[in-house]
Amino acid sequence: MKFTIPQEENMHPGHLACPGCGGALAMRLALKALGKKTMVVLPACCWSIINGPFPYSAVKVPLFHTAFETAGSVSSGIKAALDILGKKDITVLAWAGDGGTFDIGLQALSAAAERNDDFIYVCYDNEAYMNTGIQRSSATPWGAWSSTTPAAKEEPKKNIMDIMVAHRIPYAATASVSYPDDFIRKLKRAKDIKGTRFIHALVCCPTGWKCSSEISIKLTRLAVQSGIFPLYEVENGLKYTLNKPQQISPDNKLIRSYLGAQGRFANLSEKDTKKIVADIKSEWLRLLNKIEGNICIKQ
User: Is the overall model pTM greater than 0.90, yes or no?
Assistant: First the structure.
């Protein structure tokens, strides 16, 4: 049998993630793609717990715990130190949640991107501060419950891809653990590029999304297929490639299935649901307008 996903495991089975944690699977796939010559920079996030208490570690590569806001700056420093030591074949991987990327860590990430420092930054986005009590972040969708928005969040989700693409970095891409071949392909491609590379990965947190753990992968797949979370790549802030298998236009039925499977959207009225569908369609039009005359559909 021919495997398209690398068989080597660079993560131990004895981690501390919750059942159905998309963030744990994302790290497993990323390390399969990048291999043993990888150093992980880990700011405060769920993965600070998942990795295990000192002196134990769930990953088989060097991992550096750092402060919430410093993934970008610490990654820059580690890469500079490796260059001074002449160790050019080690990939530096910053691994942060949405709170440490969209909010607290954005300054350091933006500064590193402006300098085009040479590392891969992965944001595993579960759409809230899940590790500290499910507080809303700027990645939390409009209409979603969180412990700090008990009725519903009233602001739209920040478009982190637009922000990173505006830095004209060499490579930025969205990814989902529900499409592991695409996920690994993008990490491998990022590994072969110099400069700042950014991966925005949507992952499910069953606790925060108020869903059963066995549908974790199904939900992130629905997010892609419905058009809520399109898979695409951007090179140098200019060339967009839209990746299948999502719909070429949002699918109302699939959007409703996605929302209905999560308790965090239980307070939505029919009017609210229609607004979300309309907003998703609007975002799709914005994406397609930005890549008009430049679009390449890749299977």
Answer: yes
Antiparallel, parallel or unpaired: β 119-125 and 171-176: unpaired
Q: What are phi and psi of 11, to 5 degrees?
A: -140, 135
CA 18, 246, 160, 279 dihedral sign is: negative
pLDDT tens for the chain, 299 residues long, are: 567 888 999 999 889 999 999 999 999 999 999 999 999 999 999 999 999 998 899 999 999 999 999 999 999 999 999 999 999 999 999 999 999 999 999 999 999 999 999 999 999 999 999 999 999 999 999 999 999 999 999 999 999 999 999 999 999 999 999 999 999 999 999 999 999 999 999 999 999 999 999 999 999 999 999 999 999 999 999 999 998 755 566 889 999 999 999 999 999 999 999 999 999 999 998 998 887 756 455 54
Multiple choice CATH, 22-298, 3.30.70.20, 3.90.600.10, 2.40.50.140, 3.40.50.970: 3.40.50.970
φ, ψ of residue 175 in degrees (nearest 5): -150, 160
Q: What sign does the CA torsion over 161, 162, 163, 165 have?
A: positive
What are the boundaries of each domain within the chain? 22-298
Long-range contacts of 135-140 (CB under 8 A, 24+ apart): 137/98, 137/99, 137/102, 137/103, 138/98, 138/102, 138/103, 139/98, 139/99, 139/101, 139/102
What tokens does 162 get?
Answer: 């637009």
**For residues 11 and 27, what is the distance between their CA atoms, to the nearest angstrom?**
8
How far is Cα of residue 235 from the mean position of the Cα atoms in its chain? 18
Cβ-based burial of 224 (10 A; exposed 0-12, middle 13-18, buried ≥19): buried
Report helix angle 270-290 to 252-260, nearest 10.
Answer: 120
